[in-house]
């Protein structure tokens, strides 16, 4: 599989070198360039601390902020639905050992 990906990359590289550019690349979507890697990093960092429902909610909400076309209320509702759906599928359906609520929500002994 990695050889196939490397071959496709080589073909794309060769084609880009020998093909004349028809114009500029265009406007760089900086909002998406920043928000999407930030969302992935947030997911990897906070999964154990917050649990799957809240982490998926936050990362989906952050990903929705990558575009200005989605309103905040719609993004919150969609993100909540995705969080609940992921909990149902991965924790209950597949049986992965992911916390629904993470370590930040567990009571501590005094």
Task: Explain what the structure shows.
By secondary structure, the protein is mostly helical. 66% of the residues lie in helices and 0% in strands. The chain has 4 helices and no strands. The N and C termini lie far apart (52 Å).
What is the strand and helix layout of this fold?
Elements: H1 2-18, H2 30-50, H3 52-64, H4 72-93
Which terms would index this structure?
elongated; 0% strand; 110 residues; single chain
Give a quick summary of the entry.
By secondary structure, the chain is mainly α. It is 66% helix and 0% strand.
Average pLDDT rating = 87
Global structural class: mainly alpha
Q: Distance N terminus to C terminus?
A: 52 Å
Q: Helix fraction? A: 55-70%
């Amino acid at each position: 599989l990695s050889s196939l990906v490397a071959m496709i990359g080589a073909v794309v590289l060769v084609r880009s070198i020998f093909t004349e550019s028809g114009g500029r690349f265009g406007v760089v979507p900086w909002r998406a360039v920043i928000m999407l890697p930030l969302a992935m990093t947030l997911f990897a960092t906070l999964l154990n601390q917050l649990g799957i429902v809240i982490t998926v909610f936050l990362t989906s909400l952050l990903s929705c902020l990558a575009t200005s076309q989605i309103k905040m209320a719609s993004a919150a509702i969609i993100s909540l639905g995705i969080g609940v759906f992921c909990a149902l599928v991965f924790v209950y359906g597949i049986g992965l050992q992911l916390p629904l609520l993470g370590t930040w929500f567990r009571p501590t002994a005094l």
